[in-house]
Amino acid sequence: MDKITKLEKEIEVSLRKLVKIAKNKEDIGSSWWTNSIKESLLKIGKKHKYRVAANRCKGATEEYEFLWDMVWYVQQGEFMDRIVLAMESEMRTNAEIDEDFYKLLPALADLRLWIFQTNTEELAKKLITECQETINNFNGLPKGAKFLLFGLSWNPRDFYGGPYVKP
Fold first, then answer.
1. For the range 41-50, what are the long-range contacts, defined as Cβ-Cβ under 8 Å and sequence gap of 24 or more?
2. Other beta carbons less than 10 A from residue 123's beta carbon
3. Rounded CA separation 55/13 (Å)
4. What does the alpha-carbon distance between residue 150 and residue 121 come to, in Å, rounded to a whole number?
5. End-to-end Cα spacing for the chain
6. What are the phi and psi torsion angles at 109 (to 5°)?
7. φ/ψ of residue 89, rounded to 5
8. Secondary structure in 3-state letters for the chain
């Protein structure tokens, strides 16, 4: 298992833990999800010694948004050497792919993470399929481009999706 695959699993496990916490809480809004997701991903990124840029995320290397909601990167001297993770999320309930997803398509990152929220499991699965079709049809992405696509459903409250590699 290569390092990116281990990261994919670690990210998925951390998101699923948040769902378990959320199932025991009644009053959870989109700001709780956004903050919890960022905090969880910040811990993973820091654990792996990546620099982390994220707006309003205490403890990040850079507390501002760098093109995406969150970025893990490697720096060599004064320069960014590699982007390990580019993450976008939209925690408003949507019935279609949010425009923020499209920011991930040209990202020169080892892994692109998209997290969104919907009302139902069926809609989450439908939107994940639409994201996969969009990835497949975007000619600017090489074969083998890695994504993590997760839809949070309110009914039932759970995450759907997982790793996707452009064929």
1. 41/11, 41/14, 41/70, 41/85, 41/87, 41/113, 42/70, 43/14, 44/7, 44/10, 44/11, 44/14, 45/70, 45/72, 45/84, 45/85, 48/7, 48/72, 48/84, 50/74, 50/84, 50/85
2. 21
3. 23
4. 11
5. 19
6. -125, 150
7. -140, 150
8. CCHHHHHHHHHHHHHHHHHHHHHCCCCCCHHHHHHHHHHHHHHHHHHCCCEEEECCCCCCCECCCECECEEEEEEECCEEEEEEEEEEEEEEECCCCCHHHHCCCCCCEEEEEEEEEEEEHHHHHHHHHHHHHHHHHCCCCCCCCEEEEEEEEEECEEEEEEEEECC
Residue-wise pLDDT for 118-159, tens only, equals: 989 999 999 999 999 999 999 999 999 999 999 988 877 888
CB atoms within 10 A of CB 77: 5
Exposed/middle/buried for residue 93 (C-beta within 10 Å: 0-12, 13-18, 19+): middle
Q: Which two tokens stand for residue 27?
A: 């009053």
Whether 1 has a pLDDT exceeding 60, the answer reads: no
